[in-house]
Design brief:
With 429 residues, the protein is an alpha/beta fold. Helices cover 35% and strands 18% of the residues. The strands form 3 sheets. It has an 11-stranded mixed beta sheet with strand order 5-4-6-7-1-8-15-14-9-10-12, with helices on both faces. A two-stranded antiparallel ribbon has the order 2-3. A two-stranded antiparallel ribbon has the order 11-13. The radius of gyration is 20 Å and the shape is globular.
């Protein structure tokens, strides 16, 4: 069975699946984004009354049993639940499997060798952190009750590679499989690596994206004591580029894209959301938590160079825009370093103002929203931005704006100074 071709391929997106704080499907999430709806609220997953940080972007109405059996759901961490759900919805959207209610079966739903030979690259920042936390609590309780035991599935269910592995198991995929962790850039990096794989000649589709389920006390307090989280305990706390921004809001979810070779997609009659034409990935080599505008700008320039575009040819920027004082300032500087005077003419938005920070899943969902912005000729708003910070002086979109977009970029940056940037081309223009 041949897996690679010798020619350089064009890479297009043919399917999208997502669950987020603003929708339990991609379409629901996109409609909410256009309307400027917030998915942020008070934490219900655990008792947060004794800690400073009481809000998060939780999923609402998600039922893992629509995609997994009860036994599977019990044995897997939620970050795997989310990844499987998003992957199945993406495969359905791309026409690679049929749609059905209830738990999906790989034997009855896999349609062709095309999917069997596909690849999977899924990124996650925290993996099975909530299951690990619960197990630690169980170990503590075991001193009083020796009959308590850890799950035999603790180790396999919490490792980051279990997300792509279990997607493969559910969909019958036997091709390239990779789990990666690159902090908050994990999902965008997964798309970029899938893009490189297909561009380099991999002849089958690749499912790629990000997933995280970090709404647990360990993560909330861990990010909180680092100074990264907002201390404003109301739904408007995520306010990218605003003068009063004070940190991000932790959220959960997953998003998966289907990438394919352009000719294969056309031959099978697939719908095409857009084309990926550039990917930049750099390290700041600077600081464990503080971002470096120069490193971010290098990633932007690398992506533009691969795309063969000049700075003035970018029409829209979907920003990382986390709502942290240092992060938004650094990203604004990086955009100005990359685009010069033209930076002030490019509309910029941050989806995290509505979703909060879904860690690895954010970059993938933002890439998907960027594709929809190009397809529909609109830019969704950055909500909660009432007065720009003194260092944040670009054209941030605060109301839904109609705008023709030929080329766009989506930025993702993470702790450790890891940077990933994607460049997209509108397939309809």
């Amino acid at each position: 069975m041949l897996y690679y071709k010798t020619m350089i391929s064009r890479v297009v997106v043919t399917g999208i699946g997502a669950i987020s704080p603003i929708g339990i499907s991609f379409r629901d999430s996109w409609e909410s984004a256009k309307r400027g709806l917030s998915g942020i609220g008070f934490i219900t997953r655990f008792d947060a009354s004794s800690i400073k940080w009481k809000i998060a972007g939780e999923l609402k109405g998600f039922d893992a049993k629509k995609f997994l059996s009860q036994k599977e759901a019990n044995r897997l961490d939620p970050f795997v639940h989310y990844a499987v759900a998003a992957a199945i919805m993406a495969a359905e959207d791309a026409g690679l499997i049929g749609q059905a209610s209830g738990a999906r079966s790989q034997k009855s739903k896999t349609k062709t060798e095309y999917l069997t030979s596909a690849g999977i690259i899924i990124g996650s920042s925290r993996g099975g952190i909530s299951t690990i936390e619960n197990s630690i609590l169980k170990l503590k309780a075991k001193y009083k009750n020796p009959n308590l035991h850890l799950s035999a599935y603790l180790m396999p269910s919490t490792t980051i590679s279990m997300a792509p592995s279990y997607i493969a198991q559910k969909l019958g995929i036997k091709g390239y499989c990779l789990g990666i962790s690159n902090a908050c850039a994990s999902g965008t990096s997964a798309i970029g690596e899938a893009y490189r794989l297909i561009k380099g000649g991999y002849k089958w589709p690749v499912l790629c994206g990000g997933t995280d389920a970090p709404i647990c006390r360990l993560c909330i307090e861990g990010y909180g004591v680092s100074g990264a989280l907002s201390c404003v305990n109301n739904p408007s706390a995520s306010r990218p580029f605003d003068k009063t921004r004070d940190g991000f809001v932790l959220s959960e979810g997953a998003c998966v894209l289907i990438l394919e070779d352009y000719k294969n997609a056309i031959n099978r009659g697939a719908k095409i959301y857009g084309e990926i034409i550039g990917y930049g990935n750099t390290a700041d080599a600077f600081h464990q938590t503080r971002p470096d505008p120069e490193g971010e700008a290098r990633a932007i320039r690398m992506a533009l160079n691969e795309a063969g575009l000049r700075p003035r040819e970018i029409d829209f920027i979907n920003a990382h825009g986390t709502s942290t004082p240092l992060g938004d300032k650094a990203e604004t500087e990086a955009i100005k370093l990359s685009f010069g005077k033209n930076a002030y003419n490019i509309p910029v938005t941050s989806n995290k103002s509505m979703t909060g920070h879904m860690l690895a899943a954010s970059g993938t969902l933002e890439a998907a929203f960027t594709l929809m912005s190009m397809k529909e000729g609109i830019v969704p708003p950055t909500i909660n931005l009432t007065e720009k910070g003194s260092e944040c002086d670009l054209d941030y979109v605060t109301r839904l704006r109609k705008y023709d977009i030929r080329h766009a970029i989506s930025n993702s940056f993470g702790f450790g100074g890891v940077n990933a940037v994607l460049v997209f081309r509108n397939f309809n223009l």
